[in-house]
């Protein structure tokens, strides 16, 4: 973690820093994190308290640091910002989650809302708009269009099994489920996704647990249905 020494950063400002919005950054691209860090640090009312390129590390560090807002990349090599948001909000509902992503699709938005995210914005957003968005989210407002929230609630009321079940999984876990549905073994999945076979086994265990299944064959049948295999 590249965290900020808050005491040193406070300097002569003293108690004024206590009123600053504390922000954590998660993005697997170092240049993007540096850009965001520079953008936010230039604002007198914002303070970057930590950053990471790993979903696993961020989930732990965000809970420990308890920032006001966590800006989370939608997709990362070891997970997703949406999954991190879900874990963080479960541990501390006071931490606001803002998903910053390159992907504009209904399923990701649905998953973000279900994970308790307070904002879902694309990376094409202007820097000033992102800064204002962080302030809005920190103040308790939502950056998700109310009509989209209504759409998600309608899907839940209709009991859409596909959206409901897939929303439980990270992007990596969805891919694992899809390959299981294609009849691949753990070894074949590992070769396809460039992962260790043990890592794939752990993913499969997580998928079964999240979907309430006991056997791999059940996952294959469900995956075939969900992905129209």
Which features does this protein show?
single chain; 229 residues; alpha/beta; 5-stranded parallel sheet; two-stranded antiparallel ribbon; 12 helices; 14% strand; globular; disordered N terminus
Walk me through this protein's architecture.
With 229 residues, the protein is of the alpha/beta class. It contains 12 helices and 7 strands. It has helices at residues 6-10, 30-41, 55-65, 81-91, 106-114, 127-138, 146-158, 161-166, 171-181, 186-193, 197-211, 216-226, and strands at residues 21-26, 46-52, 69-73, 75-76, 79-80, 96-101, 119-122. The strands form 2 sheets. A 5-stranded parallel β-sheet has the order 2-1-3-6-7, with helices on both faces. A two-stranded antiparallel sheet has the order 4-5. The longest helix is centred in the C-terminal third of the chain and has 15 residues, at 197-211. The protein starts with 5 loop residues before the first helix and ends with a helix.
**Low-confidence runs of at least 5 consecutive residues:** 3-17
SS elements, strand count = 7
Sketch the topology as an H/E string, one letter per element: HEHEHEEEHEHEHHHHHHH
How many helices?
A: 12
Structural class, please? alpha/beta
């Amino acid at each position: 973690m590249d965290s900020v020494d808050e005491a040193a950063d406070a300097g002569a400002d003293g108690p004024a820093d206590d009123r600053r919005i504390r922000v954590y950054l998660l993005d697997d691209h170092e240049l993007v994190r540096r850009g965001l860090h520079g953008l936010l640090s230039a604002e007198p009312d914002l303070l970057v308290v930590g950053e990471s390129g790993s979903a696993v590390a961020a989930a732990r560090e965000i809970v420990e640091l308890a920032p006001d807002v966590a800006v989370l990349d939608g997709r990362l090599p070891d997970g997703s910002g949406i999954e991190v948001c879900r874990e963080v909000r479960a541990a501390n509902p006071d931490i606001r989650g803002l998903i910053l992503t390159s992907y504009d699709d209904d399923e990701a938005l649905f998953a973000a809302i279900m994970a308790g995210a307070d904002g879902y914005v694309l990376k094409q957003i202007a820097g000033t708009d992102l800064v204002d968005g962080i302030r809005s989210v920190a103040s308790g407002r939502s950056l998700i269009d109310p009509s989209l929230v209504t759409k998600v609630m309608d899907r839940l009321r209709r009991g859409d099994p596909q959206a409901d079940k897939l929303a439980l999984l990270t992007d990596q876990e969805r891919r694992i489920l899809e390959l299981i549905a294609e009849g691949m073994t753990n070894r074949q999945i590992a070769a396809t996704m460039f992962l260790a076979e043990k890592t794939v086994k752990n993913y499969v265990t997580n998928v079964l647990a999240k979907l309430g299944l006991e056997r791999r064959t059940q996952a294959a049948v469900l995956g075939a249905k969900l992905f129209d295999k």
